[in-house]
Amino acid sequence: MKILAIDFGERRIGLALSDPEGRFALPLETLRRADDRSAIGEILGIVRREGVEELVVGDPVLPDGARGDASRRVDGFTRRLAAATRLPVHRVAETLTSVEAEERLREAGIDARDRSGKVDQVAALILLEEHLSRRARGER
Question: Under CATH, which architecture does the 2-136 domain have?
Answer without folding.
Answer: 2-Layer Sandwich (3.30)
